[in-house]
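Fig. S4 source data, part A: sequence.
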Amino acid sequence: MNDIWTMMWKESKDLVFQGGWKASIRPLLLIGIMGIYLPLQFGLQWLAFSPIEMFVILWIPFSVIISFIGDAIAGERERHTLETLLASRISDRAILLGKVVVTVGYAWGMALGGLLLGLILVNLFRGNGGGWMFYHPFDLFLEALALSLLTCILGASAGVLVSLRTSTVRQAQQILGIGTFVLVFGGISALQALPANFVASLTYSQFLLLAMAVIAVLDAILLGVSLVSFRRSRLILS
């Protein structure tokens, strides 16, 4: 466990300080879109978790992860720091899990920050008095958070697996971009292939639970394959 904490600390510092002040613009911009612009545009409807809002909550953190997770291993290889990392006493599993946890926490934290900021702004600007309003229904809010977390894990797990097998960050990002395209349109095709009466029989909440189950299975598979594939003996030879 100490190895994982050590790796998380190292990755957190890299995430914060790499790229200078320009690196801080992206999270602030995305939190601004999710926590200021859209809530002010939708007003009270923002608290009802419409499909559009659900898409935003899922897509923004996922796109953030895909944009830089390719750097996880390929970036270390390009900067010639991978050898130093592999020479440390930190276990293989701790290295991989540390990178995944920090990446997921960073992206999912942006989603939580945007939701909290949006909640505050909607209540401040709704202008009709009354008590404090929260996201509703509450069970749908919890399902949205869980689904967003699972989606972040999916992006991070797939990203480190691709980064393991590519020699450059650019190549990893290109593969992840194509993979995202295939995932989105594959998901749409899968929904269209389901019997119409089956889809119509599901409530919005049940549909989200089904999506959570499918993504959780994909997470387990991809993360398991990544853990098996990450072996320093192979990486040193490559």
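Fig. S4 source data, part B ends here. The mean pLDDT is 84.
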